[in-house]
Specification:
single chain, 811 residues, alpha+beta, Rossmann fold, Isoleucyl-tRNA Synthetase, domain 2, Isoleucyl-tRNA Synthetase, Domain 1, 4 domains, four-stranded parallel sheet, four-stranded antiparallel sheet, 35% helix, binds ligand ANZ
């Protein structure tokens, strides 16, 4: 018989599966649906090892679900708009569409060579006009509903990519894509009103997301419950937002953000030069630089004073860049005694520090306090409010009292800002808006969608959208009056594309609606897998999109994903992120050429806990490779006579069913990395049985059959070969996952260690139901134990059932 040669069998099965449409999803009302989805890739050129790592384990799990009787929906597509296509166009002079579509063809072939059960009949790319037409349709619907609007203001600008960015795309002050330091520009741009859903987005319902994803989204949304308090100023009333209205009587100055509208009016002539210089300098700093807590606080006095709404005291008004114009009202009441930033500022500029919250039993903070007191306590030095409880826990009560007094109004603010979606780049969805001198901004009517991207444009980034340069394209007619009008020349953020793509798979070629609601029984996605880098951007946006679609009556779902899991990252052997410049990249195609697909799949699933990831160990792949040779030998080669470990039918059945039970649990919990070890040990146990008389029993046949089925999700090609060679009907991949025989899966004996004076001296097999006397008798009968106990006086005997026996003796 032949030795294991994966190359011959793997491509044969891939072709057969394709020909038979084995993975084409078909409706089957007798089964429960299971929608498994892996985040679709960007068609960058080819699949790297990270794509394999991200896709192989979810594929194995989808296959396992199918064997368990679910009707599994497992589609894939391409997230195809974005900068790399344009950059390639600029660099190599190829058309972005050509570049993208040829990458898509190549990468689809790579996915097929990975042996996945993806249903390719559902494939689409977000750059297909057939797809982006619906981005445009959503945009015009959102516009009609007030969910899409245009406004001017300060926006994030990436000087390298020459486009604006959403807040979510700015990571520590840098462009999340290219790393350039982000600047601020005053521009008029389109926004989607995600803030309408801020509160609802904090409620994850029964969507099961990793704790850190919930936390990141919750912090990003940043809900703060507090109050608005209005102070009088020479430039009119000024309202501040505070989360600590209980500290109102401790406010000793006000601070405005440098960009605050009242700065000019409040600056006195004497202070003007200094304030203007300060404001100009602040404009050159990034938000991160401004907010760095470690950084020295800076600021200037405006020369004006505000009137405290309760005490009537005159409080100096300062300008400082630790106050952000984009949050709250862009101004604060500073309470140095109880806020760390205000404390540092007051110390630096010699401003008054007034204690108003005192922990019980304390003498008070005195004049030489070294830090703000931010804890709970009782209100002091606050006149009529003295004695009320203060601190975060009592904000509601205090706010109520202040509201009665008419000096505060309860208010909740969010950190979340509306989603800026205009981009000044070419390779994206054109914004379907037309500007008419007479009728203003008008949505392009549905029957004129899609507004196609013009071809043959000059893309070199200039800071203006390349679409602007194509006069033929920009000139159009106003949908209202038919008069001459201009198209919007920006394109949409590509995160728009991925916000609803999971719905499009239901009817990818539907040209009458974004997706067919007759298919909505497939929703929501039951298991969504992908990288943690999308914790905020893509996941938050798609949760918002689903809620907006629900409110438009397109779906009844409120959450797109029932269960989310993030894989870790495969690093180079040096423990660093793989990158061409570091030269530590592992190419999956090379590995497949050398070892075959099944070996690479098995190795990637066993290399690390899937959610953690870890470094690539080049020698580690030998384990799965040798294992598959042994699997092959087990089924297809004659066993050379040799010493075999004695085995019984019961032991073999125990090995089979306890492994089956373990592996099922591993798939269920997504503990993929232990599956290989279990299957490896079982293979050896069956090889032992093959060399022993047990080979003649039904238990042996059962073992071969169950192992074959267990191989199917994990190493689908070799499993199919075995199935067919053993005369199985149809495909192994449409078989049912075997049932665990619970009685066979549990052993009625346990092996436990025996200690003498705390040292392990031997191990005994005893019945699980053994009494203490029986257990101790078995222990004493063990020769290695007897050597240390005979002739000695027993002081104590301890039997912890199922775990350990300890005998304490003395001479
Ligand atoms: C008085 C006060 C006293 C405050 C105190 C805190 C502690 P979060 O929780 O992040 O919402 N604040 C308000 N607007 C601001 C802005 N635009 N830039 C910088 N800081 C701003 O924080 C709300 C608190 O941050 C507010 O409550 C305000 O300071 C400050 F013992 O008001 B507080």
């Amino acid at each position: 018989s032949e030795r294991y040669n994966p190359h011959a069998t793997e491509s044969k099965w891939q072709e057969r599966w394709e020909r038979d449409g084995l993975y084409t999803f078909r409706e089957d009302p007798s089964k429960t649906k299971h929608y498994a989805l892996t985040m679709f890739p960007y068609p960058s050129g080819n699949l790297h090892i990270g794509h394999w790592y991200a896709n192989v384990a979810p594929d194995a799990r989808a296959r396992w679900m199918r064997m368990r009787g679910y009707n599994v929906f497992f589609p894939m597509g391409f997230d195809a708009f974005g900068l790399p296509a344009e950059n390639a166009a600029i660099k190599n002079g190829v058309d972005p569409a050509k570049w993208t579509y040829s990458n898509i063809e190549y990468m689809t072939g790579q996915f097929q060579r990975m042996g996945t059960m993806i249903d390719w009949s559902r494939r689409f790319a977000t750059c297909d006009p057939e797809y982006y037409r619906w981005n445009q349709w959503f945009f015009t619907e959102f516009f009609r509903r007030g969910l899409a609007y245009k406004k001017g203001g300060l926006v994030n600008w990436c000087p390298k990519d020459q486009t604006v960015l959403a807040n979510e795309q700015v990571v520590n002050g840098h462009c999340e894509r290219c790393g350039a330091a982000v600047e601020r520009r005053n521009l008029s741009q389109w926004y989607l009103k995600i803030t309408d859903y801020a509160d609802e987005l904090l409620d994850f319902g029964d969507a099961d997301m990793p704790e850190r994803v919930r936390l990141m989204q919750t912090n990003w949304i940043g809900k703060s419950v507090g109050a608005e308090i209005t102070f009088g100023t020479p430039a009119g009333p000024e309202t501040v937002f505070t989360t600590r209205p209980d500290t109102l009587m401790g406010a000793t100055f006000l601070v405005l953000a440098p960009e605050h509208a009242k700065v000019t009016a409040l600056t006195t002539d004497g202070q003007r030069t200094e304030v203007e210089a300060y404001v100009a300098a602040a404009g050159r700093k990034t938000d991160v630089e401004r907010q760095q807590d470690a950084g020295e606080k800076t600021g200037v006095f405006t020369g004006s004073y505000a009137t405290h709404p309760v005490s009537g005291h005159q409080l100096p008004i300062w300008v400082a860049d630790y106050v952000l114009v984009t949050y709250g009202t862009g101004s604060i009441m500073a309470v140095p005694a109880h806020d760390e930033r205000d404390f540092a500022f007051a110390r630096k500029f010699g401003l008054e520090i007034r204690e108003v919250i005192r922990p019980e039993g304390s003498e008070g903070m005195g004049e030489h306090a070294e830090a703000a007191y931010v804890g709970e306590g009782l209100i002091v030095n606050s006149g009529e409010f003295d004695g009320l409880p203060g601190g975060k826990a009592s904000i509601a009560t205090v706010t109520g009292r202040l509201e009665e007094r008419g000096v505060a109004k309860a208010r909740t603010t969010f950190r979340l800002r509306d989603w800026l979606v205009s981009r000044q780049r070419y390779w994206g969805t054109p914004i379907p808006i037309v500007y008419c001198p007479e009728h203003g901004a008008q949505p392009v009517p549905e029957d004129q969608l899609p507004v196609r991207l013009p071809e043959n444009v000059e893309f070199t980034p200039t800071g203006q959208s390349p679409l602007k340069l194509d006069r033929e394209w920009t000139r159009t007619a106003c949908p209202v009056c038919g008069g001459e009008a201009e198209r919007d020349t920006d394109t949409m953020d590509t995160f728009v594309d991925s916000s609803w793509y999971m719905y499009r798979y239901l009817s990818p070629h539907d040209d009458t609606r974004p997706f067919d609601s007759a298919q909505s029984h497939l929703l929501p996605v039951d298991l969504y897998t992908g990288g943690i880098e999308h914790a905020i951007l893509h996941l938050l946006y798609s949760r918002f999109w689903t809620k907006a679609m629900r409110d438009m009556g397109l779906t009844t779902q409120s959450e797109p994903f029932r269960w989310l899991r993030n894989q870790g990252m495969i690093l180079g052997p040096d423990g660093e992120k793989m990158s061409k410049s570091r030269g530590n990249v592992v190419d999956p195609d090379d590995l497949v050429r050398e070892y075959g697909v099944d070996t690479v799949r098995a190795y990637l699933m066993s290399i690390a806990p899937w959610e953690d990831g870890g470094p690539w160990d080049p020698s580690g792949i030998q384990g799965p490779s040798r294992w598959l040779s042994r699997v092959w030998r087990l089924y297809f080669e004659e066993e050379a006579p040799g010493p075999a470990r004695a085995t019984t039918e019961a032991e073999l059945r125990y090995a089979v069913h306890s492994t089956l039970k373990k592996v099922s649990g591993d798939y269920e919990r997504m503990d993929f990395n232990t599956i290989f070890a279990s299957l490896n040990v079982l293979t050896d146990a069956i090889l032992d049985a093959k060399r022993s008389p047990v080979r003649q029993t039904p238990a042996y046949d059962e073992a071969l059959n169950v192992l074959n089925l267990m191989l199917a999700p994990f190493v689908p090609h070799i499993a199919e070969e075995i199935w067919t060679e053993r005369g199985g009907e149809g495909s192994v991949h449409t078989q049912a996952w075997p049932e665990v025989d619970e009685a066979a899966a549990t052993r009625d004996t346990v092996t436990i260690g025996v200690q003498v004076n705390g040292k392990v001296r031997g191990q005994v097999d005893i019945a699980k139901t053994a009494t203490q006397e029986e257990a101790l008798a078995a222990a004493r009968a063990h020769p290695d134990v007897a050597r240390f106990t005979e002739g000695k006086t027993t002081v104590k005997e301890i039997y912890v059932p199922g775990r350990i026996i300890n005998i304490v003796v003395k001479d």
